[in-house]
Amino acid sequence: MPVSPPRAMPSTTPNPSESRAVLRPSAIWHYGFGESASGEEEESIMSRPFGVALLIAGYDEDGPSLYHAEPSGTFYRYDAKAIGSGSEGAQAELQASYHKSLTLAEAEELVLKTLKQVMEEKLDANNVQLASVTKDKGFRVYADDEMKSCVGRIENE
């Protein structure tokens, strides 16, 4: 009969099937080194360094939809959302400037201006990519010439 490491205990996770994944690093440490991991070591090996957040966009009979899926598996619906490096400043700008009546061209400009404010390097058509989801064209990634045109519009202001 397997013996649990002394510091392992039942846990609750957002997804019940994750319990083994949460306890396994502590068990490996215990069996590999013959000792329990310290609190700091357990915290380090239990962290999620490779969590991924996703923005999922779509269009249906109710109109456009945008969802933010977090690494924990929870998701929220937004009208406009920024994720990643610089997201706090970008989100504040989106909340201040976004409204549902924006045209696609206005939305492109808002996104690029927001990115320009939070990016460390100079924004150009080679270091940013846009995609859109519309009723007529569905999902599409902008071609290089479209990106140059969009970036050119905000540079001329």
UniProtKB/TrEMBL annotation:
Membrane-spanning parts: none
Keyword Ribosomal protein: no
Pfam families: Proteasome (PF00227)
GO CC term, one of those recorded: proteasome core complex, alpha-subunit complex
Keyword Isomerase on entry: no
InterPro entries (UniProt xref): Ntn_hydrolases_N, Proteasome_alpha, Proteasome_alpha-type, Proteasome_sua/b
GO terms under biological process: proteolysis involved in protein catabolic process
Region (Disordered): 1-21
Keywords linked to the UniProt accession: Proteasome
Family, similarity comment: Belongs to the peptidase T1A family.
Protein name as catalogued: Putative proteasome subunit alpha type-5
Organism: Hortaea werneckii EXF-2000
